Structure formats: C-alpha cells, structure tokens
## 1
Amino acid sequence: MRGSERSWRNSTVLGFSLASLLSDASHEMATAVLPLYLRHLGLGASVLGLIEGVADLSASGSKWLSGAVGQRARHKKAITAAGYAVTTACVGAFALATRVVPFLILRAVAWAARGFRGPLRDTMMAESVDPKSYGKAFGLERAGDMIGAVIGPLAAVGLLALGTSLPRIFLWTLVPGFGAALAVALLVREPHADEEAVRARPRRPALPRQYWAFLTAVLLFGMGDFSRTFLIFEAASRIPAGAAPALLSIPVLLYVGHNMVSGLATFPAGALTDRWSYGRTLLLGYALGLGFNLGLAFLPGGVGWLLPLFATSGVYIAIEETVEKATAARMIAAEARSYALGMLATANAVGDLASSLLTGFLLDHGGRVWAYGVAALFSAAGVVTLAAVIRSSRLEHAAPAGTDGSLAAR
C-alpha cells in the first residue's frame, strides 16, 4: 500500500469501527435483557454460566479455525461480512426460545460466527495500517464496539420503558446487526494479495517462544475474566425482591455506564500504547482487572459499591481488548499474523469459557466471595506471568517481528 493508505484514518478502519458499533449495539441489546429473561423463566446463574460457557467454547474453536483459514483466504471481506449476518440472525432468534437447549444452540452458532470473523477482521485491520499506529487503529475499532455497547442497552431500557416484551426486544436487534454486515460490504477495502505468496503460506506457521509465553499470560488472565453478562446478573441480585418494576432498569443502566467508561477509555488506551509501552500498558489493565475481582469478592454487597467497580471494569476491558491485539500484531510478521491473531482469540475464548462456567457454578453453590475470589486468583496469575514475559523478552519495546520470530527493540 502507498503511504497515505497506511494511515489509521482509512476506509477499512472506519468500516470495521462502524460495523463493531452496530454489531455490538445489536447483541448488547440482547445481552442486557438476557439475564432478566432467564430469571423470568426461572433459570439461575448456573444456566447463564452454561450458556455463556458453551458460546465461548464454540467461539474458541471457530477463532482457531479462522486463524488457520485466514493464512490462505483470498476473500476475507466476504467471509467476515457473512459472520456479522449469521450472528445477527441467531441473536434475533432468541425471541423464539423459551428453554435452555434452544438458547444454547443459538448462542453457540452466533458466537461461532462472531469468533470466526474476529481474526479475519483483525488481520485486515493490521494490513491496512502502519505498525506504529496499531494502537490507535485497534483503539478506534474497540471504541466503536464500546459505543455500540452503550447504545444497545440504552435502546433495551427505552424499549422496556415503552412496555416492549423481552422477546420482542430480541427482534429489534436485527436492525443494527444487519447494518453491521452492510458496513463491512460497503466500506472495507481488502488489499490485493499475491496469490502465489498467499497459497505458499503455512496454515499453522511456527510462532516465536515469546509469543507463546504472552499467550499463556492472556489465557491465565482470561480464566478470571468472566463474561460481562454476570455484571448485570450481580446487579440484579442486589435489587430487593418485590421491588418496583422500574428498578429492573438499574442493572442495565449500570451496565450502560460500564460500557460508556470503556468506550471513552479505549482510544486513549490505544494512543498511550503507541506512545509509551505495549507491555506496561497491558500490565496496568491486568492489574485493574485483579482489583475489580477483589472488589466484587470482598467489598460490601450494596448496589452503591458497584459504581466504582463497574467503572474499573470498563477501563481495564478497554486496555485489555485494545492492547492485546495491537501487541500481537506487532510481535508477529505479516505472513503468520492471521494464525497468531487466531491463537490470541482462542486463548481468550478458552479462558472465558472456563471463567464463565466456574463463576456461574460458584455463584450458585459457594457465593460471591468464592466466585470472584477464585477469579481474582487467576487474574493474579495473569499479572505475574505477563510481568515475567515483559522482563524476559522486553515486550514493552516490541516492534514488528522478523522472520526468525525475535522481538526487536524500538
């Protein structure tokens, strides 16, 4: 690409940022009311954990497959747009589900499509931007995602206030969801690739030892990074039984505030990463995540305590989701980047799977101290491992990797 096309201010970054906004508005609208709907159906935290865990399992497999397929795929844009469309259709179909099994199937297919599109999207993003601007590019895309995560729950609250039934809210998610697929189709520019060179790429290239160490830190931290859906469930559990129906909006509004904080923090986190240090910025995010889990476990159980905790979660999620991708993109050479990003997404999905299942089970059978205390232990393991990786491989000075997989200092 020519120099002007390598700026982070390009059509591809804009297209994916808009797609992330619309797609997240769609499925976060559903996420905001899903715990309320499950409680209405008489289903508990274990069922929520099972649904989220199965979804993360399907996502982890599809992300690994996507990373391998993306090594040689010549039409990533079309596949990615289809992934947005399939996710949208499945989320909208929640309106027809009243039992556990249909929820499991629809959530699994939706998250498989969502997982498959992720590494392809991230690879095209990295190909369209100069490495020195990865933080800002991924930060803008994540900001779009988080803005959508504010719009979606607010739309759900508005529809609840108008008396819209929970199943009908799921149908409304189809509008922004299909808009996301259209944004990819119209705005994203897939770079022309040398077909012979693409075909010659291995589907599972060798990755440097430092990258596997980095993935270990990601996996360990992810095992304490349970689904944000549990935040809504936690807030709902602190609302007194028999409270006025209007109070049901409080958990959703707290979740909106969480996503608003995250949306505001995402782009600054990316810009800080480009200017300061990839490893240290990510370590800061992981440390905030550890503090968040400790707060949920040991602070008093009133709703008021959730305000600073939700804000802390919003900041650390912004750093985590932006800097992990930017770091991976800088550590790995272009010919292996799709597979590397797929492995990053897989490590996150596997961690989320374990965390969702364990957190849901422990909430039902051990209480919040056990549930969030165990999550904090995994967060601490991630912090310690990442600190060791930074110390041993100078991750804080990561630059684009050479063909030998080594990390060059900036």
## 2
Amino acid sequence: MTQRFTQPPRGNLKPLRIVAAGLLTGLLCSSAWSYTYEERQEKDFSQYTVTDPDASYFDVSARMALLDDTSNSLLLGQMDRLQITDNCTSLMATPPLDERIRIPGFYPSPDAWREATRPLFNFEDDVSRLAGAYVATQNDYYSECLIKFLNKWAEANALWKFYYSPHDPQAWYSTESMMFAAALAYSIVRPRIEGMEEKKQHIDDWLSSLAKRHSAIPGSSGDCCNNHFYRRALYASMIGVLTDDDALFQYGVSAVYSALSDLTPEGGLPHELTRGRRATHYQNYALLYLVTNMQVIARQGYDIFNLEIDGLTIQDPVTYLFQIIDDPTRLEDYAPHEQYHGFLNDDQYFSWMEIYLHHKDYPRMERFLKQYRPLNNRSAGGYITLYFMAPEAQQRIVLNDSNKQRSGITIPDSPE
C-alpha cells in the first residue's frame, strides 16, 4: 500500500528561470517534479522510517566524551561561556505564548516585526541555551530545566493559536522556527533524563499536534515550496523522530527530494533565485534548513548526503552558492548581479556549513568558516560549532572588522 505523508506542499515545483537581463520579468519551467497536488499525495517515501526515536541530530554521548578530553581553545571558550546561564526559576517565570500570535511582515514593517518577534526569539534562545549548557557542563540541572520549561508551554498548548491567511502568513512563518528550536534542543536531553516521563509524554504530544496542524497548511504558490517548506520539513523530521511518527518524518524527507528535483543545471534553487538582489542570501538561507534537516535524516541511518536526483546532489547547490558569492555574474540571467551581501556579516546564517563539513571535505567552505566560528543559530541547532566542529579544524577565533562583536549569542536582526 502506498505510504501517505502528512500534507505535502501544494503547487508546481518546476524550476524557474528568470529572463530579461537579470530582471524578474519572466519564467520558464521544466522539472521531474511536475506533479499535481493529488499526485504528490501519493508519492511514496515508505522506505524512510524512524529507526531510532532517541537519536538526536548529533551523537550527544560521543560529543560529550570528546569535549571532556578536548584542549581546543575555541571549544573550551564556548563551553566556558555556557557555564553561566539563566537560572531555571527566572525561565519558568516566562509566560507561554498561549494567546493568538499575529506578526507583521518584516519588509513592510521591520521595527514592528522586531518588537512582535522578540518573545518568540527569546524562547528559541532559551531552549537552545539550556541544551548547550547541558552539553557543556553535563549538569542535569539544565536538562531537567529544559523539560520543565517545555512542559509548561505544552500544558498551556502554546503556539496553537497562530494567525494564518495567504495574505498574512508571518505568524505561520515565525512559529516554524520555534517548533524546530524546541524539538532540536529537546532531542539532546530527552533520552538522557531518567524519570519525568509524564512531562516528556506531554511534550511529545504537544509537539506532534503542533507539527501536524502547522504542516497541514499547504501555503501559497511561493511558500508552498521554497525555504519555508524546508523549514517546515526540519521540524517535521525532528518531531517525527521524537514521536516515532513515520508520516511526519517522511514529510521532512520529501523536502530534500523536492529541492534536489528543483535544481537548475547550475545548482540554483529556483524559488530562492526569484528573490532578485537577495537571491544569494536566499540560496544560502534555504541550505541552512535543508542541510540541518538532512543531518536529522542521516542520524536515522540514511545516506541522504549522497542522494542523487537527475545527476544532482546537495553538493551542487552548495558549490553554486560559493560561485555566486565569489562571482555574482555566475547568476547569469537568474537574478541581478548587484547582490545584497549584508547576510555575510551574520554568522547565524552559516551554521549549516559546520554540519556539512561533518560529512564532506570542502576546503573552500573550511576557509570561509574560519572567519565566523564559533557559530550559533538560536533555532536551527543552537551551538553548532560546539556540537560539530572537529577540534583540529580551528583553535582560535579570527577577529576582523566583520566579526569582532560575534563571540557569543547572535542577536537576530533579520526575518525568518
């Protein structure tokens, strides 16, 4: 029997090619994924099942053992900063977001967006920091606090009342990252805490219901299939693992197949290349969630980093990213060659590269990352350098004009 997966994205996933000398004035389409919505419902991913519900997105025990024995000054410095974090009493005083969440759009109203998203970002920072403090200290105080903190939100059925319409999707977008921030952090501590079973079951049920409700919204012609689909896939994969839910897990896998099937011959992600002057930024932004999702899938025993569709693998969009960073003319007619490069000043956008280097040897990426480490992403994995960097890769923070202030937690100043 064909295995169905939780509501897949609606719409055409055909690659888009911008014509008219770098302006977004026309589209040409061709792809192996030219399925209708109904046909996509029947796409079979039944070969992908959850094999280990206790597997986090990295081997927590192995990493703790390595950190116990490391002399790497960069890793030790990050561990030292995590020795002192918020006490549990103050965190438990944070009210859950149990009322209707409505967020203004970033681009039309950036100041209002920043104010409205502050409590959402605080939640992401809190759960990621507690998980990081646990890994750095191996002190159950932090892991138990994380369980109690998430249970409080579960008891309040927080995040359930997000507002959504196709013309006002920002709350739908913003809750994506809260869900995978919680799931990724929770996956680090859940199997290592004895007891607290009722609280853990409550959290499992809460995350599962949120994931199913959130992913049941197919989105519009854009966010059905672009980086927001990859973000939904990230929470679906991790929550699918935590709750042993093959349907959610397969939803997460489907995004990887969709992305690779969409690629232009050069390796561009077409839905991101339509962003004009921000095409390079969004090519990277999409990879942030694709690669992190692939890491979750790989931890279930699947060779997803070598998955090939129509002769293309994840290496192709990665290579293309560095090509268009180094030489924007490689964008050809897909997007304007005068690209926004402000994202290059924010290390949170490159946490996925630490994961990628865990699987692939890529000297160009290694050189690139040395100017940004240690990397932290408040939602997509937390303290990624602490969890993934090989100790021999880098010993010290490289200080330059663009990263002198980036030695701790990133302060968000851009939209999801």
## 3
Amino acid sequence: MQLLNGKSQSDTLLARYQVAVNRLKQKNITPKLVVITVGEDPASKVYVGQKQKKALQVGMDFEWVKLPEETTQATLNAQIEHYNQDAQTHGMIVQFPLPAHLDKFETLAQIAPEKDVDGFHPENVGKLALEQGVLYPCTPKGVVSLLKAYGIRIEGQDIAVIGRSHVVGLPLSILLANMGATVSICSRNTKDITKFTKDADIVVVAAGSPGLVGADHVKEGVVVVDVGINRLSNGKLVGDVRFDEVKKKASFITPVPGGIGPMTVAMLLEQTILCACLQNHLDLSDFLESE
C-alpha cells in the first residue's frame, strides 16, 4: 500500500506556483484572489484562512471581504459585480454555506465566468460537460491531479464515485468520464453500493458519512480516494473510508487529513494564476514550470 500524499504533492505544486507568480510579477501582473464570506460560519473561517495562508505563501494578492449575516441578495450581487469589473481581481469565490435567506445559485451566476476559480458558474459547468472546460471545480481537479502525480491510469478504468454533489461527485464523474473511464455514480438511493465498488479499479468516496466504506466494499489492489472529512464528537478528523481496514487491500489510498484537502487549495491557486494569464492574453505554460 502506498499513500496518496496530497500534502506532499501540494507542497511541490506551491513551489511551482511561486515561480509562476514571480515571473508574472516581472510583467507587472500579480495574481489576485478575492474571497467573499457572509456571516460567521466557523468552518468557513478556517477554510478561508487556509486559502489566504497559501495564496500569500506563493506571492499572490488576497482580499477577504467579510459581509454581515443580514446582507441582502442585492447587496451581495453588487459586491460581486464590483470585483467582476475590477481589472486587478483575477479570481473570485463566494464561500459557502450562505445564510438561509441568500440564494446559492443566483450568487454563483453573478460571478463572471472568467473569474470563477471555483468552477461552479453554470457556463463553466456546461463547458465541463461538453469537454470544453477551462476552469473546473477544485476538488475534482485535485483528485485527478493527485492520481496523475502517482502515475495512476484513468483511461479505461472502472471507477465508482460515491456521492453526487454539485461540488464533488457529479463534476468529478463527468471529468473522469471525459478522460475515458467507465464511471458508476452511487448515492444514498443506490440499492447496493457494493455491487459497484467491489469490482472497481478506483473508488472515490465523497459522501460526508464517516466510515461508510470498509474492506468488504473493495477488491485487492484497489485505488481509494477519500474526499470525506468529518469531525467526530471526540474532535478527531476522519474520512468516509475505514482507513485501517481498507489500507490492507488497497494499492494506493489517501489519508484524512492530508489527502485531497491540500490538493483542493492548490487547484484554487493554480486556477487563479491561470485566470491572471488568460485575462492578460498570456499562456500559463510560459510561466508554470512543467512537472
């Protein structure tokens, strides 16, 4: 068994991003990411803090716009439009969850598609489905990037994806299918998940259900990607996979934490740099060193 070490791989990527940012600065371009939060969600504060830390680490500009809980949809939309029009802002995300009175899908549609570094704008999701994608949801892109880093083949593989959220499961399934995999999408409505996971070459679990997948779900030599991150009552962070069981059968497996989480943040930064290049009619490959 070999760990799919997202922390180590993300550190490698961040070093490359730092070089790319420095090269862009020589052309008087500093990639800038804006994150908008509404309210005081504790988990959101942690996640945005991590993004801020890594963005500043690679030399990017970062602005955290903190709006109060009672912010109206019109006010939020106006704030987004301000950064849509700001030439110095290359990437923008609105951190979810939003307060209940705000509409997630209206909010996503307000973000300029060319600045949508989370890859959730309807235009970017449509392009993903049509195999014309440029900006992708960051967690699915992070999963693919990590598999590629370890030389794990995707084309021709049978892959079971557990979870069909718009953030991970569904876009990841489309992305993997576009790459030539045969993909089964499982959810809480699936009669027998084991029917799909038992023969899969790769199993991706993104259900938000601690310990959902055990050794009896998978075959020998399987590649397991655990996207879940759940905090137990004792404070321990665990994934959706029973790691100690499954690692005995897996050829590769992600740890939690330290697997996909760091890769998600890395992809967010990469796409911000990509947006800075595209908005200045530059080719990312001229600034980003090849692996």
## 4
Amino acid sequence: MKARHESGLNEAGLWARFAALAGIAHECGQLALRHFSDQSSLGVTMKGSQDFLTIADGAVEALFRRRIAEAFPEDSVMGEEMGGGDAARLWIIDPIDGTANFARGDRQWCVSIGFVLDGVPELGVIHAPALGETFLARRGHGATMNGVPIKAASTHDLRRSTVEYGWSPRLPAGPYLDAVGRLYGLGCNVKRSASGALGIAHVAIGRTDAYGELHINSWDVAAGLVIATEAGARINDFCSGDWITEGNPILVTVPALWDTLFDACGIAAAPKPTKMGGA
C-alpha cells in the first residue's frame, strides 16, 4: 500500500468530494434506472460466461467520468468498462454492479463508487435506485443508509447466521462448491444475489452476517470497504498487492464470526483467477 499524503489532498478537499459523491451517484443511478425501465433499450451482449454487458454500463460510466472531470479535473478514474490504473487520487466505479440481474429485470443491482486516496479507500457510495437505497460512508465518520446510521449485526451463533457467498467465473467451480458445503455444514444459511457491492452493503446494515468471494475486482468493493468498516464489520486484507488493478479475495463479516468463517470460506487458500472481468 502506498504511503499517505502523496496526493497532497487536505481535509477540505476530501469533504468536497464527499459532498459531491451522493449527488453524482444519484444522477448516474437515474440514467441507469431509465434504461432498466425500458428493457428493450439495453442491447445486452456477453463478455463471457454469465458476464453480461448492456448499453447502460458504458453510458453510466461515461456520465460519471464527465462529472468528475468537471468537478475534480486533477483526479483519475478507473472503471470496469473503460479501464484506468492506480493513481494518488482515484475514483473507482462499477457503473452497474449486478449486470446479470439488471439485464433480466431483477432490481438487485447498484451503482458503486469509491474514492481511494494514496492507496487507502476513503469514501464510498452504493446507490441502488430500483430499491430506493443509498449506502454512504467516509472513513472515520460512520456509515448511513438513506441518511440513517447503520451498524453490522451482533450475531454470535453460526446456526443463526446468513452468509452470502459470491461466485466468480474466473475461478474453477470446485473451491467455491467446497466452501459452500463447509458453510452449510456449520449450520449457516447460504445465499447468492449476484451483486458483490450490495452483498457487502447488506453486511453493513445487518441483513446478512458475512459476504465472501474467492476473487473480486476493486470496482466491486472499493465503496463497500469503507461502508462495511464504518458499520463495524471486519474485512480481510483486501487492499494488499495490486488490489486496484488485479483484485483479491474478499471476506466481510460480523466480528464474532470472523475466525470460523475465514477458515470455512477458504479465503487464505483462494486460487488465482484465470482472467480479469466480472459482473
């Protein structure tokens, strides 16, 4: 991870970006929602197996890039659709996380935007316009959903827990299925909703007790890392190595279940992905 303060950005600069974040996310969300409401406009194509792409993905990312260029021209942007690389002041966007859901009329999708300063995630918003929910956080200042403070659950008993376990087409199925089997064996309720960003947000608000995935990209989690941490969840060392460009395994849990779920989810022994990409 980079040393802090390489960017020279001060507190006022961070607050200015935080103040702009929700408004930009809502504008992007409204554009996505217009496409979602007219499924004939989506122009769905496939980047790979279960890896959907719609016209809306590119349109939302392009809008976001314009707004950042207007408001913060010194900042860089990395997005799922148009790429980019590491930078001292970096916005990371998944214009539509859960594109497979989006393309089939399922409301479980969102716009996910994180701001990373000198390698450290500082700001995050996960906006789900079809659900009417906006998760927002700044590092050290708490997390909210629709303006109301949120907190991760206090679950201690695995037999009462719900774990969301994401699947990646970049990895062989065996380790994923093995981990799901271990989780069921521990008495967990296991689910998958096909949006990693919303999966992490749901841990932050207490709807689930953990989100795990053996490989996930930075644009899926850059916002959620801040939101979940500020809500009191525990997260593995996702921000290690070339996490911004290459991704990593992810595990987000309520504190009391960390040790058991870290082992059960197989995060420490996660296989390397075969290619980049993702929903």
